[in-house]
């Protein structure tokens, strides 16, 4: 069960430090103790060098915190890290967590490391951490991709126009990457090392209470963080919800979603592990498998492609294609039958009860079904004073309330509302030739049943 070579990048090609006390792994994107190729490679290297493995995590707090992250996001993150810590220690791997940037923690601990292993994310802030680490760390640095099925540069060397252009490339490549990853056994336990963790994440609520952050958007009961919970949910989905997924996935009231997106966002489960489970599922048919793999591989990795190859992916000017900006600009002064402030949108105070229900689900539970997310975003464009302000509002609301906000999928899906990965359609007021979505789209599912389901979910959060 070798780790595919395409997943591995050497960022500092020097020999490992001869007097190093351990192999260091910066656990930052892949927050899990199993099915983690970066961790398994760290164990392989440590065994080769007769050393233990230490994993570390940098917790951003206060003014230097992760952009737009709040108590909701941090509660879920810390629950996952508590689970990961327990799993790492069970495997004989040390875990050090400090309040500092991931780069600073890695740089400090790398002074006594023979070798540094990084996992990989694609956001600008993550790229900045890696660049800072490479500049400061003198020992060997190896980065291992564990957040996508097919590594981004392997799948495509350019920004893809749409899912239809990336899909055939992924289809040709993904079979060898959808492979089991067996856990390696460390030869040396890290228990003898005298490293101190400044934060004991075993009590995530206590850690959260000691942080300086936005607490207006609080934790949710609907989702519990961690790889253990992720696998429990996946198993339940395959047993009870997967059969019929191909037909029901666009019906919010059908409860056909797997709810894996928060766990994927925080790296608490591997997309490869999910893809393997889908392929091997006893329930469901080929249509169900194909539909799910389309979402977890093609659509998700199209988003990774977008943020990787787009500088300024969080801005209207850079993320929205020229044709869409042009047509939206030509219709920017069109009369809008309804106009709302951002505060009214956040409170769900519009004339549209179904939109309000979707906003309530998002605001109170941290989740919204994909079918409603499209409608939700298109209406913000329609109800905002300009396309630029609509884009900014959509992204702010998305990143503030969704558990999986601030994700490549988030930036890509918001830009899709404004024309990314799409083509011109029939011209309309406000939208120009950007795709419009009317209330008629709600007729494709039982919208009244959806509203009742949201009311029940939100009552459970109270």
UniProtKB/TrEMBL annotation:
Q: What is its EC number?
A: 4.1.99.3
* Cofactor(s) of this protein: FAD; (6R)-5,10-methylene-5,6,7,8-tetrahydrofolate
Record domain Photolyase/cryptochrome alpha/beta: where? 21-152
Q: Which family does it belong to?
A: Belongs to the DNA photolyase class-2 family.
Please list the GO terms describing molecular function.
deoxyribodipyrimidine photo-lyase activity; DNA binding
Query: Which key words tag this protein in UniProt?
Result: DNA damage, DNA repair, DNA-binding, FAD, Flavoprotein, Lyase
Report the protein name in the record.
Deoxyribodipyrimidine photo-lyase
Q: What organism does the record attribute this protein to?
A: Methylobacterium phyllostachyos
Write out the catalysed reaction.
Answer: cyclobutadipyrimidine (in DNA) = 2 pyrimidine residues (in DNA)
Which EC class is the enzyme in?
Answer: lyase
- Which terms does the UniProt entry file under GO BP? photoreactive repair
Q: Hey, what's the signal peptide range on this chain?
A: none
Q: Which Pfam families match?
A: DNA_photolyase (PF00875)
